[in-house]
Structures are given as structure tokens and as C-alpha cells.
Amino acid sequence: MISVGSVISMAGNNAGQVLTGSRMLYALAENGELPTWFGRVHERFRTPHHSIIFTSLVALVLMLSGSFVFLAAVSAVARLITYTGACAATLVLRRPQHASAVQPATFVVPGGALVPAVAIGSSMLILVMANRQQLLAGLAALAGGAILFIMNDRFRPVSREMTT
After folding, report:
1. Which long-range contacts (CB under 8 A, 24 or more apart) does 129-134 make?
2. Which band of pLDDT confidence, cut at 50, 70 and 90, is reported for residue 26?
3. What residues have CB less than 8 Å from 87, skipping those under 6 apart?
4. What is the DSSP string of 95-159?
5. pLDDT at 122
């Protein structure tokens, strides 16, 4: 029963990740941060089919390339690095000198900078406990995303608004 429950849970998690991951790629393409290929919408189903295919292929390659425990650790490392960056950005962007560039927060956590600082410390502690292979694989995953971002920035056609 536990094995069946685990398989059902992992299948649901994977389906959710494909859907949310593909929508993130779609949104980034829509905003010009990724190639427009990721933002193409299927005429009949009105879904970002290129993003769904890409996300599914990446998930399939990762699934076939390693053990579940290893992939879970790599995912955790990549997420921790991302979360740590978001916490650090929160600390910086909520300073008064950035008030004109950043909209006011709609929700303010009690304790001010304490929560992001504790989150950064906790993330660093967890990252220190990861082994070298997990850290390198997590960084490789983030580097893959950075390469897509940089390639788009470098090869994106210049819009007319930017030239006038």
C-alpha cells in the first residue's frame, strides 16, 4: 500500500511540476526573457505546447539519468539556491532607498529582516550538508537555465521601441 501510495504521489507531483514548470517558461517567454518558441500556444487546446514538451523531455531525461534520492537532492539544492537569492533580494529591495523602484509590499512579515535572514542561514546550513555531487548537479541545473536566459538576451531581435 505504501508503494502504491508513493507511486501515485510521485505521479501527481510530476504532473504538477510539468504543468507549473511549463507555465513558468511560457510566462518568461511572454515577457521576452526566454525565446518566443517557449511562448507558442496550441491553436486548438490553447496551451503552451512547446513549453510542455520541453519540460516533459527534461523531466524524462532526469528521471532516466539518476536515482530518485539523487534527483530529489539536486532539486532541493537548486531550489535552496533560488530561495536564498529571493530572501537576499527581499532584504535589499525593502530598504528605503529602493522605495521608488519597488512597489510597496502587500504583506509584511512581522520581525522585518529577521525572517529572510533566518531563511538564508537555514538554506546555507542545508547546502553545507549536501555532498559535492549534489551541489554540482544543482548548480548545473541552474546553469542550464542561465544559459537559456543569456542566449535569449544575446540573440533576441532588437525591438523598434528600443531603437527609437
Report:
1. 130/73, 130/76, 130/77, 131/73, 133/70, 134/70, 134/73, 134/74, 134/77
2. very high
3. 116, 117, 119, 120, 123
4. SGGGTTTSPPPSS--TTTTHHHHHHHHHHHHHHHHS-HHHHHHHHHHHHHHHHHHHHHHHHSPPP
5. 93
pTM: 0.60
Query: What's the rounded mean pLDDT across residues 9-35?
Result: 81
Neighbouring residues of 30: CB distance < 8 A, sequence distance ≥ 6: 39
Report the percent of the chain where pLDDT is more than 70: 91
Q: How far, in Å, CA of 42 to CA of 144, rounded?
A: 26
Round to whole Å and give the CA distance between 66 and 89.
Answer: 33
Q: CA angle 139-143-149, nearest 5°?
A: 150
